[in-house]
Amino acid sequence: MAETIDRLVDTIIHAGLRVFARIDHAAGAHEIGAALRPTELLIFGHPKGGTPLMQDRQLAGIDLPVKALAWEDAQGKVWLSYNQAQWLAERHGLGDTSRDAVAAIAAGMHKVVSAAAGTNQS
Fold first, then answer.
1. How far is CA 67 from the centre of its chain?
2. For residue 103, is pLDDT > 90?
3. Confidence grade of residue 120 (pLDDT, cut at 50, 70, 90)
4. Most exposed residue of 31, 66, 90, 115, measured as fewest CB within 10 angstroms of its CB?
5. d(CA 69, CA 5)
6. What was the pLDDT predicted at 121?
7. Contact 5, 40 (CB under 8 A)
8. At what angle do helices 85-92 and 47-56 cross, to 10 degrees?
9. Is residue 76 scored above 80 in pLDDT?
10. pTM passes above 0.90
């Protein structure tokens, strides 16, 4: 799991995006004496992507920057999960002024997650 999230960080940085935070939920669970399979949240993005969404509907900022969750299931398989950009647009009622930014976020998320997961088709 750590290898996957490290690849995601590298991919994000090489794409010119910023990593704002890396949160190790399993480490937090360990601090309180609880068990949790490996689970890390990465918060990342770039003002160029998120600003137009917040200009359209400022409350969209609650879901920005974008996030990806790397987690290991009970069988030891690692997953990368994230919210689709279209979901964010629907959630906040984003209009036509956000269309290009939403499409760019969707394409960027697909690119970095695919590269980190080793499924990049390009």
1. 3
2. yes
3. low
4. 31
5. 9
6. 52
7. yes
8. 20
9. yes
10. yes
Half-sphere exposure of 39 (CA within 13 A, CB side): 11
Rounded to the nearest 10°, the torsion over CA 11, 22, 46, 10 is -10
33: CB partners within 8 A, 6+ apart: none
Buried/exposed 37-55: b ≥16 CB within 10 Å, e otherwise: ebbbbbebbbeebbebbbe
Cβ(109)–Cβ(102) below 8 Å: no
- Listed in sequence order, the DSSP H helices in 24-121 are 25-31, 47-56, 85-92, 99-117
Answer whether residue 66 shows pLDDT above 80.
yes
Q: For the chain, give the mean pLDDT.
A: 94
> Do 68 and 82 contact (CB within 8 A), yes or no?
yes
For the chain, the C-alpha Rg in angstroms (whole number) is 15
**Cα separation of 100 and 27, whole Å?**
38
Contact 86, 114 (CB under 8 A): no
Dihedral pair phi/psi, residue 95, rounded to 5°: -100, -165
